[in-house]
């Protein structure tokens, strides 16, 4: 599936991802700016914050992700998620916005 990251300034980066990988892993592997992922995906840093676009659906978050989203550098919105928890499924394309800063 394709994963499209739109930065705060509106610039878009689209890359090919693999089912089972996370939106965070896909960004890091491709050197996409805007996602820091300090903790490497262990749900303890909140520097992988993204805003999920309306055309993209992921399963509901668990409580720990919800708690961690209270500590993001840019305030959370209703569509905020931690991208290390967002797994690509099948061929479903994904679109997210990255916040102005992660730290
Ligand atoms: Fe640290 Fe997602 S990479 S919480």
Automatic annotation (TrEMBL):
Domain of life, source organism: Bacteria
Matches recorded under PROSITE patterns: 2FE2S_FER_2 (PS51085), ADX (PS00814)
UniProt entry keywords in alphabetical sequence: 2Fe-2S, Iron, Iron-sulfur, Metal-binding
Cofactor entry: [2Fe-2S] cluster
Record flagged with keyword Iron: yes
Annotated Gene Ontology cellular component terms: cytosol
Annotated CDD domains: fer2
InterPro entries for this protein: 2Fe-2S_ferredoxin-like_sf, 2Fe-2S_ferredoxin-type, Adrenodoxin-like, Adrenodoxin_Fe-S_BS, Beta-grasp_dom_sf
Gene Ontology biological-process entries: P450-containing electron transport chain
Gene Ontology molecular function: 2 iron, 2 sulfur cluster binding; electron transfer activity; metal ion binding
Similarity comment: family membership: Belongs to the adrenodoxin/putidaredoxin family.
Annotated PANTHER family: FERREDOXIN-2, MITOCHONDRIAL, FERREDOXIN/ADRENODOXIN
Protein name: (2Fe-2S)-binding protein
Organism per entry: Cryobacterium psychrophilum
Biological classification of the source: Bacteria, Bacillati, Actinomycetota, Actinomycetes, Micrococcales
């Amino acid at each position: 599936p394709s994963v499209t990251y739109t930065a705060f300034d509106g610039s878009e980066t689209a890359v090919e991802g693999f089912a089972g990988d996370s939106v965070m892993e896909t960004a890091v592997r491709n050197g996409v700016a805007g996602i820091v992922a300090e903790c490497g995906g262990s749900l303890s840093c909140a520097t992988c914050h993204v805003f999920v676009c309306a055309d993209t659906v992921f399963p509901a978050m668990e409580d720990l992700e919800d708690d961690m989203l209270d500590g993001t550098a840019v305030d959370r919105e209703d569509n905020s998620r931690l991208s290390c928890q967002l797994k690509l499924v099948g061929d479903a394309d994904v679109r997210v916005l990255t916040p102005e800063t992660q730290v």
